[in-house]
């Protein structure tokens, strides 16, 4: 079968239609799970693009391409891979904070409070003037107009937003700014000599990746690069909040070190790591790292030939460029939750999230795709490269693929079969215990994707590069 959505990604890599030869797609098409949005076909397109880019890199290394295959159902399951984890045979809780969610407002609308991180929860509770209690929050939100509450929470450095319809979002200034941007940009930052790939037996063997991202999208990018042989080091800080189960989900294949970038010595350590790396992936709001000497241009001077992958919530353009955001926030403000609630009402009234974290995982896969394309350009053209993307741009891409007709949204299973999940899963021995989890989705004819390192606790390793993997 073919995937029409993949055609929207071909120009990013400079591919023509013939590049899809050697790609096999199996497993049906949407709807796979209860949503009108094309989560199966978009995840298949993004992962197919990763596979084709990996094959190109293999050709640069070995002089031949590989056959690539993707299963649509397995790709869809990967959009909520955290749900399928077990630790020592017991399920891993993915429950959100009890006050996180959507609430009715005074003006008959709905407001979403993102409260998984303690600092964002504190911001919302301080604005509302209540303690951490669902009933108290419900009563407090009911006294606000939705737009006023959105403005107040953002002013307090929180996260969330007013639920909009898709039509309302198209008229918003931020949506207009995103509409003028491509899905993803791969921009040459500076000239430098071409670099051959390090020696090795896998497509990304010896390629070093620094992962300064959090939550799901950015960490999924680095996890995907690790699947194909890259040496990945996640850098976080002991003072930063985290959601434990997400670290299990996205930590496969990575070294894991901690640095406090508020300290001069730790910044010096990071710069030393950067000087020896190939890919730098970061998920801070635009401009945040520029004040610390870590902008794309500055790192291109420090390490000529670097590939700098930059992720943010709402893009580098428009009035919301510096706004905090997450998959669920983008769903909320762009009309996705409103539409999902109309078609698939929940146990409680109001807007609903789709049944996966599509924007997060799709963004991660697309970041990896862009990073691999840039690495291949470095092999042949040289140069330092910037790969730039945002959750909102990916949300727009997802919505722009159109919706499944309502007549086809009947009797859709809410879950995959136990046999499917078992066949897609594996078990890793980790320092925390035996972690059951989904394995890589892609199939490649010569170098099957795999992780050579298991998920580990944050800060498990020293911030020192080991010898490059072969």
Can you describe what's shown?
With 470 residues, this protein is of the alpha/beta class. The chain has a domain at 4-93 and 179-316 and 355-444: Rossmann fold. The chain contains 17 helices and 17 strands.
Mean pLDDT: 95
CATH superfamily of the domain at 4-93 and 179-316 and 355-444: Crotonobetainyl-coa:carnitine coa-transferase, domain 1
Uncertain segments of ≥5 residues (pLDDT<50)? none
- What is the CATH C-level name of the domain at 4-93 and 179-316 and 355-444? Alpha Beta
Sheet of most strands: 7 strands, mixed
- End-to-end CA span: 35 Å
State the share of residues found in helices, binned by percent. Answer: 25-40%
CATH structural fold name of the domain at 4-93 and 179-316 and 355-444: Rossmann fold
| Number of β-strand runs | 17
The secondary structure category is alpha/beta
> What Rg, in angstroms, do the CA atoms define?
21 Å
Adjacency order of strands in the biggest sheet: 8-14-13-12-9-10-11
